[in-house]
Design goal:
Order of helices and strands: HHHHHHHHHHHHHEEHHHHHHHHEHEE
Number of strands: 5
Number of helices: 22
Helix content: 55-70%
Radius of gyration: 24 Å
Distance between the termini: 57 Å
Shape: globular
Length: 489
């Protein structure tokens, strides 16, 4: 295979990373928090203040809002929501987008999210190529391109894919920095750590990872050169993202607001059961049933044959430590509402599996060249080809409903609602298709959350009954109802 053909293969895979969510996103209306994230990001850029939704850092929202600056939206800097101490961000969002074009805003806001996914795909390939070889990077990129959870979240304006992207890139540049502490690597390490911390507050889990890896390096090499510069630059990036506040403890102050809007009466759902406390194994189980079986098989195979990959313990730490810590921290602290909270572990595990598959392929191809009946005798190669076909089929067969993907262990996506709810299945973004369905069933009543009433009406949906848990009159069925599986009543 010539170098030119190799490059075209990578370009084609990156195009797939862009194309699948791009085609998919046009089927769906805004998800639950999309208009809030978009409008707040737009207001940040326009006003230079991070007033709305302090529960999340501003970076991803501002990135998503950049295309909106070119759409000539009507924007009143002096409106009450922007200058008062008590802001109604939902009303601000409705006024901004329903007056200027909801679908247009959401379409252009989603494009930067897809481009972030492409950027992450490039870095998965890049690190795989440098850590293993070119084929390992290409294999990892192939796995990434067809991962349903990645496809599902990369077409939405949300912080989870952005967190996964910048966290992975930050750890990559930490690895580069500790391999060779040049000025370039030092700057990029600090810069990307700051961008990760500016993506979502969950990125604070990167700090112990950085401290552990930097500490091991300093202990082994008796040197801590430029370590403080990395953290200092990360702080400066954060400070700039928040428009240089006078309170230097601004990030800590915002971090404490993360669960301020939590519903203390909310019940989590798992395998047909409800709990206000959640389950310690929730995210592990969500990972198992929402990740394609072929990937799980090869991941377990790769863990069992760790030595086969040829990774040093040091390099292995850069892959396995972030994966383990993100999973542990999510299981300990995060709300049991979606596999999206552990999305950052996927790029690291994909990189690991890509390296393993590359080693297996290299070994089997060497044997095939020597064996007369090579294809029959090299079962590993045949298994990998079959698993790859199954893997691609899983991604294409679930189109366009990648967010609601469940694997065959639970009977596929049609049975997913029996095991998980919330953003694992439906994020309130299916109003377009619901409107088409109601045209065929005009007397159908629609039960939805209050923040989707305006959006539903904008798509022509009628007979909407907002959920009110104090008023159960709508729960007496009389006729045909449409109820989001996201809302278990």
């Amino acid at each position: 295979m010539s170098f030119k053909i190799q490059n075209w293969l990578v370009v084609a895979l990156l195009f797939v990373v862009f194309l699948l969510p791009f085609l998919r996103m046009q089927n769906f209306s805004p998800a639950s928090d999309e208009i809030i994230l978009l409008s707040s990001g737009y207001s940040y850029i326009k006003t230079g203040e991070t007033k709305f939704s302090p529960q999340h850092p501003p970076l991803i929202r501002m990135i998503a809002a950049v295309p909106l600056l070119f759409l000539n939206f009507e924007f009143d800097r002096e409106r009450y929501d922007l200058i008062s101490s008590t802001a109604d961000e939902w009303q601000f969002s409705r006024d901004l987008f329903f007056n200027n074009g909801l679908d247009k805003a959401v379409f252009w806001g989603r494009i930067p999210m897809i481009l972030l996914s492409v950027l992450l795909g490039w870095y998965i390939f890049k690190w795989g190529k440098e850590l293993f070889d070119y084929k390992a990077g290409a294999v990892a990129l192939f796995i990434y391109a067809f991962m349903p959870n990645i496809i599902g979240h990369s077409q939405l304006v949300g912080t989870d894919l952005g967190l996964a992207a910048f966290s992975f890139i930050a750890v990559y540049y930490l690895w580069k920095f500790l391999e060779d502490a040049t000025k370039k690597n030092t700057i990029l390490s600090g810069l990307t750590l700051g961008l990760a911390l500016g993506s979502k507050f969950s990125a604070v889990f990167l700090l112990p990872i950085f401290v552990i890896l930097l500490g091991i390096y300093a202990w082994k090499n008796k040197s801590g050169k430029n370590f403080m510069f990395v953290f200092g630059l990360a702080f400066l990036v954060l400070w700039a993202l928040y428009f240089f506040p006078s309170d230097l403890l601004f990030y800590w102050g915002k971090l404490k607001t993360v669960y301020n809007d939590s519903n203390l009466e909310h019940y989590y759902y798992l395998n047909g059961n409800f709990s206000q406390d959640g389950w310690w194994y929730y995210f592990l189980w969500a990972f198992i049933i929402k990740t394609p079986i072929p990937f799980l098989v090869v991941l377990l195979w790769a863990i069992a044959r760790y030595k086969k990959i040829g990774l040093s313990l040091w390099n292995g730490l850069f892959i396995l430590l972030p994966s383990a810590l993100f999973l542990f921290m999510a299981s300990w602290k995060a709300h049991n509402i979606g596999v999206r909270y552990i999305l950052p572990i996927y790029p690291f595990l994909i990189l690991y599996v890509g390296g393993f598959v590359d080693r297996i392929m290299n070994n089997e191809l060497r044997i095939m060249k020597k064996a007369a009946s090579s294809l029959i005798h090299n079962s590993y190669f045949i298994i990998l080809v079959l698993l790859a076909g199954w893997y691609v089929f899983s991604a294409l067969n679930t189109y366009p409903n990648h967010l609601a993907y469940f694997n065959e262990l639970v009977g596929g996506s049609k049975n997913g609602y029996k095991y998980l709810d919330d953003s694992n299945i439906d994020w309130g973004y299916d109003l377009k298709r619901l409107a088409e369905y109601q045209k065929e069933n005009p007397n159908m009543k629609v039960i939805t959350s209050w923040n989707h009433v305006d959006a539903g009406m904008s798509y022509g949906i009628k007979n909407i009954i907002p959920i009110n848990f104090q008023d159960k009159t709508w729960s007496d069925p009389n006729g045909k109802y449409a109820l989001s599986s996201h809302v278990v009543v």
